[in-house]
Design a protein that fits this description.
mainly beta; 23 strands; seven-stranded mixed β-barrel; six-stranded mixed sheet; 9% helix; 404 residues
């Protein structure tokens, strides 16, 4: 009889449990773990073993009240795409899971872009959740960071051909940042273009203020390769600004990234241009286009170089007719400051109190036979030029081709 009673009791108990289970499911009631800990991120840091580009571990601060996680990482910048992507290490209570944008995160493994604040969501077994916002600050060297990316990542190899590109500037809190903007970039300089660290010139599609300097389209990036201090141009500009000069270029030292590659410390400065924000003068037309009584009320930009020779002719002249013959010595091979065009050239300018002598199309230019070489020779060649005949072609050496 007792066995029958126990059997009936057991059967009723099973029916009761089954009924409760059905009711709980229908009513959306979940069975919870009363011992489950509240969702929390206990620690958050960056380990060099998981982030080889970092020089040291970085431990972040967690504000328990606001759930804000903050930290500072050196050697990175938001101006370069992908440079702020790291694998953080974190700890949470056993059984809790962590997500970013719905994607499960694994401590020390999952890589996240921290160039802007990132929200981490932690959940416990009961479905309770808490959110933490991770905000990191970055500093590369402390200087503003300029990042330029050319179309298709093509290198900049010409001073004459402009390449389309985009530029972003991280002002590192000292200057206003510059969001991605369209520019064109090309090489610049004479001898400096031949060095491993190349200087560049850039132009914006529209007038743009850069690092606190007045807006303009044209800017230059000086490499300062042969100046180990990197300071000479900046000091010279500073002295000019302290003088009575109407205008002297301004510049700011920056770190340059070109197509994601760090190119070093550059001097981003104003290019010399006639403009209200640069050299504020009235641009004058060429002298040949000016009337004899023209009012010279503006100015000119002059470029000084050393590719010329000065000779005092007076001791060699005699009374009456004189023939001027010029022998040009050409050093015969391209170098870091010279690209051979394969043609000879001459500009002659003789100024006296009474008249000027200028070379023109009537000057004759020919290869000096005694020193001409074959086209394959690397030896120097000479070209002679005299007055009194039309230009003619002589010889076969491409470095001494007739020119006027």
């Amino acid at each position: 009889m007792r066995r029958i009673f126990f059997a009936i009791t057991f059967l009723l108990t099973l029916l009761f449990i089954a009924g409760c289970g059905k009711d709980a499911t229908d009513e959306g009631i979940k069975i919870v773990d009363p011992d489950a800990e509240a969702p929390v991120i206990e620690r958050f840091w960056f380990d060099t073993r998981n982030n080889p580009r970092m020089s040291s571990n970085v431990t972040c601060r967690i504000d328990a009240a606001s759930h804000a996680i903050t930290g500072a990482i050196d050697g990175a910048t938001t101006a370069v795409e992908g440079m702020c992507t790291f694998s953080p290490t974190f700890t949470v209570p056993e059984g809790q899971t962590v997500y970013v944008n719905g994607v499960r995160q694994w401590s020390g493994v999952s890589r996240v872009d921290f160039s802007s604040p990132v929200t981490y969501r932690v959940e416990n077994v009961n479905g309770e959740a808490a959110e933490y916002v991770v905000s990191l600050s970055f500093s590369f060297t402390g200087l503003p960071v300029v990042s330029i990316s050319t179309a298709s990542g093509m290198p900049v190899t010409s001073k004459d051909m402009w390449s389309k590109a985009t530029i972003t500037i991280d002002g590192v809190g000292r200057y206003d940042d510059l969001a991605a903007a369209d520019i064109e970039i090309a090489g610049r300089g004479n001898s400096t273009w031949g060095y491993p660290k190349k200087p560049y010139k850039i132009k914006f599609d529209k007038r743009t203020e850069v690092l606190g300097m007045p807006e303009h389209k044209r800017w230059v990036l000086l490499a300062n390769y042969i100046d180990r201090t990197l300071l000479r141009n900046d000091v010279a500009f500073y002295l000019g600004q302290r003088s009575a000069l109407a205008w002297t270029p301004h510049g700011v030292f920056v770190e340059l990234f070109l197509n994601g590659e760090h190119r070093g410390c550059y001097y981003l400065c104003e290019q010399i241009r006639i403009d209200e924000n640069r050299l504020a003068i009235n641009e004058m037309p060429p002298y040949s286009e000016m009337a004899a009584d023209a009012d010279i009320s503006g100015g000119y930009i002059l470029e000084l170089d050393t590719y010329y020779d000065e000779v005092e002719l007076a001791p060699y002249l005699v009374k009456g007719k004189n023939t001027i013959a010029v022998l040009l010595w050409y050093f015969g091979k391209p170098s870091f400051s010279h690209n051979d065009s394969g043609k000879a050239g001459l500009i002659f300018d003789c100024q006296t109190a009474d008249f000027d002598i200028l070379s023109d199309e009537t000057w004759k230019c020919e290869t000096e036979p005694a020193t001409s070489r074959t086209p394959t020779s690397a030896w120097p060649s000479r070209t002679s030029a005299t007055t009194g005949a039309k230009a003619t072609t002589h010889g076969t050496c491409p470095r001494s081709t007739t020119a006027t």
